[in-house]
């Protein structure tokens, strides 16, 4: 399994000065995994923040993603080079297919292009995001190359147990996007409120700690200095078995976001 920093910093919906400041703050706080995407339109800002941080490039794990409109062999190769130009980097540590867009049926060509990009040294590792059992099976069967990572929506209201089991079986690292369940009332859930009070932490810290304890790499995002710091402060307490069992009951079974089987995200 690919060894990753235990927590990452997400940059969805951040751009310009706000993005540069947040990423700088995250690196100063200690985050060493920064997650961007062509779709976020902030690779330039992320690259600049990393350069300005003064931390050597090889100490920061940088992820970017190929967007739907760039699926296809040549398109994906050019998209990766464009991302590197924007980031102003020679390589990224991890390149993901952002969404499978199965109706377009071009994720296999995209994946084969990424296998070559890795061989060429432009990317350290290749993986996918929002892939389902069938789309995962298909790329593995066709290419013989298993993704290092599948980054999926994952939080206490959507626990993705079946996907996590499949990932464990295949040796895929699970990254959790929306680990704070942004589109729900997760952070005011009474079960989390109670656990948080007993550990003298916030409900967000409980959600992140849960994610880490079940073996994921959560990628919280925030533009607030206090919350960037708070979200990184999840290594000085531990959830006990009772806490974990209580959180397991929160599963609601519905994605808060798009359904990767049908969504077309360009
Ligand atoms: P903000 O930038 O104002 O901190 P998700 O992980 O589900 O994508 O959620 C991200 C959202 O949660 C962001 O809008 C962010 O807003 C907010 N957020 C991030 N960290 C915390 C925290 N510790 N407590 C409450 N809200 C948070």
Describe the structure.
The chain is α/β, with parallel strands linked by helices. It has helices at residues 16-29, 43-53, 73-87, 107-119, 133-143, 161-170, 190-199, 203-213, 225-232, 241-248, and strands at 9-10, 33-35, 61-66, 92-97, 123-129, 149-153, 173-177, 217-218. It has an 8-stranded parallel β-sheet. The longest helix has 15 residues, at 73-87. It is globular, with a radius of gyration of 18 Å. The model has no long low-confidence stretch (mean pLDDT 96). Bound molecules: adenosine-2'-5'-diphosphate. Adenosine-2'-5'-diphosphate (A2P) binds next to helix 9. Adenosine-2'-5'-diphosphate binds next to helix 9.
The order of strands across the largest sheet is 1-2-3-4-5-6-7-8
Gross morphology: globular
Mean pLDDT: 96
Helix content: 40-55%
Per DSSP E runs of 2 or more residues, the count of β-strands stands at: 8
Uncertain segments:
none
- What amount of the residues lies in strands? 5-15%
Summarize the structure.
With about 270 residues, the chain is of the alpha/beta class.
Topology:
Layout: E1 9-10, H1 16-29, E2 33-35, H2 43-53, E3 61-66, H3 73-87, E4 92-97, H4 107-119, E5 123-129, H5 133-143, E6 149-153, H6 161-170, E7 173-177, H7 190-199, H8 203-213, E8 217-218, H9 225-232, H10 241-248
Helix pairs in contact: 1-2, 1-9, 2-3, 3-4, 4-5, 7-8
